[in-house]
Design brief:
- Residues 14-294 form the SET domain.
- It comes from Carpinus fangiana.
- Residues 328-363 are annotated as: Disordered.
- InterPro entries: ASHR2-like, SET_dom, SET_dom_sf.
- Residues 329-349 have a biased composition (Acidic residues).
- There is one protein chain.
- This protein is of the alpha+beta class and 429 residues long.
- The protein has 3 domains: 3-46 and 245-311, SET domain (Beta-clip-like); 48-221, no CATH class; 320-341 and 363-423, no CATH class.
- It is built from 14 helices and 17 strands.
- It has helices spanning 3-10, 80-83, 109-116, 122-132, 135-138, 143-161, 163-171, 178-194, 206-219, 300-311, 318-340, 344-350, 352-366, 370-376; strands spanning 16-21, 25-30, 39-43, 47-50, 95-97, 101-106, 220-224, 237-242, 250-251, 257-261, 275-279, 290-291, 387-389, 401-404, 410-412, 415-416, 422-423.
- The strands form 7 sheets. A 3-stranded antiparallel sheet has the order 3-11-10, with no helix packed on it. Strands 4-8-7 form a 3-stranded antiparallel sheet.
- A hairpin with a 3-residue loop joins β5 (95-97) and β6.
- The protein starts with a helix and ends in a 6-residue tail after the last strand.
């Protein structure tokens, strides 16, 4: 897919425009003023694959509810436990693949039938079964290699049956590094010997395998497991998806948009893996629309490390510029605070009002983005999701209800009065 075709795909709605941004590559900017909560993109995946290691697939048993409690439909990735919650036994509503039996389970006969003619073809079924039984992969390689093998099987299946979408995958950002090449050499040899795919245009090669691994690393979106406060904010990924249009959103540590998915709650099984991107607050025309690639509560050092390791860049957004200054002067600030502690009481007695004004001004200068966390970061225990208003009403009236993109919590928008108090009403069940 050419850059012109990619631009046309995201500009269809008239809300976004693809541009080349110096130092950031291609990005998406608002082509008109946007209201908070407005949906700017709904995107469907061209490729989905399980994030579970091959050897961690539980055995299917018609008499054991625990065997399906941590698994997901191999087609739509709904939780099998939630999809069968209305049944007396969870095993009565799930359907196994007729060929590989317990290794791939589906939430309904409809999902199985659709998978057999799309993502779970006979070659995919056979390839995953052979890889699962290969000791050199499941016993001698890191877990990550098993998930990469899943991706490559899905990608080469895409090349065979959906060549235009395979070309879209190859057009996305991402070039292989030394680690990608090392992984590609092992996986290419393994797949070509155990389950050689139909060669795509240009041939099946180590170079193509390395390129695909890089595209996956830079562009895959994780579909997370359901939120639970008991997980201490550490959720696992149930599946990965390649979303061709959403992949053009760049990162910002204080995003003006966030993505929502409704894998387990969407009424339509055919579209439940779509992702929806809504703006967090009003955005002027011409402003770049950015997502955060991870929870916004992470500190400066952690964010920079993850961005460099996973995406190969250093972030210089407004928030990082401020917090980098904190990091540079942290030790000096601690020493200064200790030296000034003795005189603090006298200063407060002699010039109380001036001191409070100075403190307030200094706080604003040190961290002008604090308002974002007060208003747009979910305060539910162990969540730290980003909140965006619900879509505007039919008459374009903005909604005063915010939705968390992690736990799904709804609450009325916060209104801060002159004294600093907040009027907030949780709508949690």
């Amino acid at each position: 897919m050419s850059e012109a075709a990619a631009a046309a795909a995201v500009e269809t709605s008239g809300l976004l425009r693809m541009v080349e941004i110096e130092g950031r590559g291609r990005g998406l900017v608002a082509s008109q003023p946007l209201r908070g909560g407005q949906i700017v993109l709904r995107d469907s995946p061209i490729l989905l694959y399980s994030a579970l290691p091959l050897i961690n697939q539980s055995s299917f048993s018609s008499s054991s509810q625990s065997s399906t409690s941590n698994m997901y439909c191999a087609k739509c990735f709904r939780s099998l436990l939630s999809s069968s919650s209305s049944s007396s036994s969870s095993s009565t509503s799930v359907v196994p693949c007729p060929c590989c039996s317990h290794h791939h389970i589906f939430c309904s006969q409809n999902c199985l039938s659709a998978a057999l003619t799309s993502c779970h073809s006979p070659w995919v079924c056979q390839a995953l079964s052979r890889l699962r039984d290969c000791p050199s992969l499941v016993l001698q390689q890191p877990m990550e290699r098993q998930v990469q093998a899943r991706f490559l099987v899905a990608a080469y299946h895409l090349a065979r049956f959906f060549p235009s979408q395979f070309q879209i995958l190859l057009s996305l950002e991402g070039s292989p590094n030394a680690l990608d090449t090392t992984a590609a050499q092992f996986l290419h040899s393994l797949i070509s010997s155990l389950c050689p795919p139909h060669p795509p245009l240009g041939g099946f090669s180590v170079e193509l395998t390395a390129a695909l691994l890089a595209k996956d690393k830079f562009n895959a979106f994780g579909m997370m497991e359901p939120f639970s406060p008991r997980d201490d904010g550490q959720r696992s990924v149930r599946a990965y998806g390649i979303y061709p249009n959403a992949s053009f959103f760049n990162h910002d540590c204080l995003p003006n948009a966030c993505r929502f998915d409704y894998v387990d709650t969407a009424p339509d099984h055919h579209n439940n893996t779509d992702i929806i991107v809504r703006v967090v607050h009003d955005v002027p025309q011409g402003r770049e629309i950015c997502l955060s690639y991870f929870p916004v509560n992470e500190n400066y050092a952690s964010r920079q490390r993850r961005l460099m390791e996973d995406y190969g860049f250093t972030c210089h957004c407004d928030r990082c510029v401020v917090e980098a200054n904190w990091s540079d002067h942290e030790d000096d600030n601690v020493a200064e605070e200790e030296e000034e502690e003795e005189g603090k009481d006298e200063l407060m007695d002699e010039d109380h009002h001036d001191q409070m004004a100075s403190t307030q001004g200094q706080g604003d200068a040190d961290f002008p983005h604090a308002y974002f966390f007060i208003r747009y970061m979910c305060d539910r225990e162990n969540c730290w999701g980003t909140m965006a208003p619900l879509p505007p009403k039919d008459d374009a009236t903005p909604s005063d209800v915010l939705e968390c993109n992690v736990c799904g919590n709804l609450k009325h928008d916060q209104v801060t009065d002159a004294s600093g108090g907040e009027d907030e009403l949780s709508m949690d069940d």
